Amino acid sequence: MPELSREKIKAHRAQTYRTLPALRIKTMEEAVEFVNKRGFVFFWPIKGIELPSLWVAVAGDRPVPDEHDDPGHITWSWKDQLLGKGRWYYGRLLRRRNMMVSLQCLPYFYALSPNFGDPEHDYLEQYQQGTITLEEKLIYEALLKKGALDTLSLRREARLSSPESATRFNRALDALQTELKILPVGISQAGAWKYAFIYDLVTRHFPDLQEQARPISEGEARRQLLLTYIKSVGASPIPKIGQLLGWQPGVLHKTLEQLCADGLVQTGLLTEGEKDPYAALSSLV
Q1: CB of 176 within 8 A of CB of 136?
Q2: Contact 172, 159 (CB under 8 A)
Q3: CATH classification of 122-213, choosing from 1.20.1050.10, 3.40.50.360, 1.10.10.10, 1.20.120.30?
């Protein structure tokens, strides 16, 4: 890709990441519009991973500070206020990191999830096949039977409240979110910190999601998500894309070939001598 420069990528991201001062997000509604425009973003920037984040779009391209009075932390308030409101999907998804996903993009993620039928029974089949752990099964069953629960109540109902089970509980929470089985839908004043997530089933909170995802083929979902990603970052080393999306190299390359055939994406070395090829938005080349 001889005509694609790092300066072009940087300029593209200044727009899509909204790092330019004039583009900074100032209101909660603008935050929702940003997620809808980008399709999916991280809540905070993740070192070594290219993807827009709400923090950067609000506070600029700088590290997340520890000081609670930093003005950038308004993002935390917006996130909490919108939990359970159905304005976006919030939870741990790619790389088990906290993300916002637009409602338009969410069915494509769901189409690639292992959820394939009746949410009241399929998890049992997954457990019998060994694809979900006992802790995941217990947490899912507690929410299925009891409804939405705060973290402390969920640990108790899932019989995972002992100190020894804390790591296994948190790992299972993350895994269930990445599979789009559960998500946080609110905040409770439970616990010593008076702050705990309330969790519920994804299919209960988004009852139309299964039907929205049903007609989407796996190939279509991958094309849409990959194109959405490349539109956000402009260009990225292909191995880095696979690491973020969690796709096997063969699947990733097949999807890239389809986008290249459609004239939407181009692949090649950014500069001569580089080890990893890039995938780039054709309009940048």
Answers
A1: yes
A2: no
A3: 1.10.10.10
Burial label for 36, CB within 10 Å (0-12, 13-18, 19+), is middle
Confidence of residue 61 (pLDDT cuts 50, 70, 90): confident
Spatial CA neighbour of 32 closest among 79, 96, 97, 91:
79
Q: Which two tokens stand for residue 103?
A: 């409602």
Task: Tell me the residue length of the chain.
Answer: 285
Instruction: Tell me the mean pLDDT in the region 270-275.
Output: 73
Whole-number Å distance between alpha carbons of 283 and 1: 12
Q: 131-175, pLDDT tens digit by residue?
A: 999 999 999 999 999 999 999 999 999 999 999 999 999 999 999
The span from the CA of 28 to the CA of 12, in Å, is 24
User: Which CATH topology does 218-284 take?
Assistant: Arc Repressor Mutant, subunit A (1.10.10)
